[in-house]
Structures are given as C-alpha cells and as structure tokens.
C-alpha cells in the first residue's frame, strides 16, 4: 500500500454500480485518488465478488480496490434516504442500472442535483438514457454486437467471435470516467455539475476506426478476417519452431528493415511489396514468405533479430509471461496487494502514469459487504451506527 494521494485526492464518489461497467469506472477514478464509497445490497453485495476464474476467483480484488463498502438497501425508503444523504456530500455518482431504475428508487438525478448542484452523475447503460432502445436490458456483449465489434472478430468461415475480456463494459466505463473528468473541469469554472451519459454500444462504436466512414464513402463493409486486417501487411502472427510470434512491419521503412533482417533486402524494392498498397494487395503471398522464414527459428532467435533490426514485434503473452518479464517489473506494470484471505495478489498497476500526481492502490478491496459502513457514515455524515 502507498500513501500517495493522487490527482483526484479530495474528490468523493458514490458508486451504485454492479458487475463491470459502473464498478470499473469507479476503479479508474479510485486509482487516480478519488475516495470511492460503494453502496452494496446488504447480505448479497455485488455479484462481482464471486467472478473470476480458477478455484480462487479474484476479479473483485482488482475492480474493488481503493473502495469502501457501505451496506444500503436501495429498495427501502430508509436506504434511499441514506443514499440521498451520502450523494449530497459527493462530487460524483456512478450508476449502471437500466435507465429509469434510479428514478424508481426516488433517486432521480435531477432531484439529487437540486440538493447538490455540483453533482456529476455518470450513467452507464446499454443504449443510453434516451432513444427507442433505452429501456432495453443491455450487457457488454450486446453493445459489442450493436457497435460493430463482434461482427468483425473471428474468421470469415466461422460465426462472430468475442474477445476474452468484457471490452464493451470497460470501454463504456472508460468513456464514463473521461466524461466525469471533463465535467469536473467544467464544474471548476462554473460550479455546476451535469449528467454523463455513456452507452455501451456508443463506446464500442467510437473505437471502430473508419468502419462507418468507409461504408459511407465507398460502400465497403469490413468483414471478419481472422488474425489480419485487410490491406495492412505484413502484420500477423507467424509460426516459429516453438510457438507463435507477432510482427508488425506494414510501414515502408519498417518493412525494408524486416526484409534486410530476412536476408532478402530486394523485397523492399520489389514492385509487389514496395508500397503499402502493393503489400496489402498481396497480403497472403507476403505472409507466406515471412512464415517460411520465421518457422526456421525459435521465438528467442526471431526476437533477437527483430530487436536488432528495429522491427516492432513481440511474443504472445499470458499471465505467467507477464509476471516473469523484466519490463513489466521495471515499470511496475504489475503490483502486489496484500489480501486477508489470499495472502498476496498480483494485479495490474495504475495507468496512465502521471509524473507529479501518480495514482496508487491505497487500500485493498473490501472483503465483507458493508464492512466500512460505520467509518463512512461517521466521516461523511457525522452519524454513529
């Protein structure tokens, strides 16, 4: 644990989220120094407490770090009043329920902001707070499908695939965090809070590059292409004697360096491969040439050549590789967090790295629902429980 306070020191956040999207937004703000008070349903708590893989699922330890757990029954009048009292003292409220849920619980953001005009309310949902689909249930995978991501992931002769992580949820949470930071800046000038409306499908849509623009301009639809991107070559995973290795040399100068490392500098002058468009048009042919070369070497041998040649390339890492890598260690990309039940947990650190006000993990995830209720109510509201 560290005593570093972070750039958002002094900012108070009430998190009413559950599962991934809302809580990940809270994690990001907490990592940057904000105080995160998580309201959990008594006894059951957030289902994320039980998510993860292996016989000791530990996702909760990551997503709930830097948070305080307060037990509140939001379905009861007393619980709703307690939530209102806490929100009145907060700078930011995060929620990721279906639109209309807060209003049903007598926690309409418009009413909350009458009591606390500077309140910023981050609302993360599947389809946003408005529009004909707003009332629909929407998980991350649905947002990925609607936003276009699922349709382009996988191989053309197989159904759409997914990433191995919940990218739609985390993108929507990240955009919610960005919105909160922008709203804090606006509040610093005006004193006024506002609503941040982050939709899962729109967060995915934002990172879809020129998918819509290309169709609008030329009627071109991006399709599933496996491990490659059409027209971007060479940029693929290539076989070695002991595994696979990723090489990205699709820029002209970089490709020339790759060709020289292959012992075939003439490829960079060959009209079939000399330009970006030419390489893209002969993507399969070029990939086959490179694969014939890479499979004669081990990953270590190939990596040494790529480093020497200055070609962007890298191993395909899993968690074990990350823990063993000296670069991860040097940059503290992975950190150790003490845990009452599991001893110590290794997890990702704080990103991005700020030079003057770096983020930190100041406290581990709360292991018991409501374990911090008394402390928070006394400190925030002056109440004894």
UniProtKB/TrEMBL annotation:
Pfam families: CoA_transf_3 (PF02515). InterPro entries: CoA-transferase_III_domain (IPR050483), CoA-Trfase_fam_III (IPR003673), CoA-Trfase_III_dom3_sf (IPR044855), CoA-Trfase_III_dom_1_sf (IPR023606). The keyword Transport does not apply. GO terms for molecular function: CoA-transferase activity. Keywords: Transferase. The keyword Transferase applies. This is Formyl-CoA transferase.
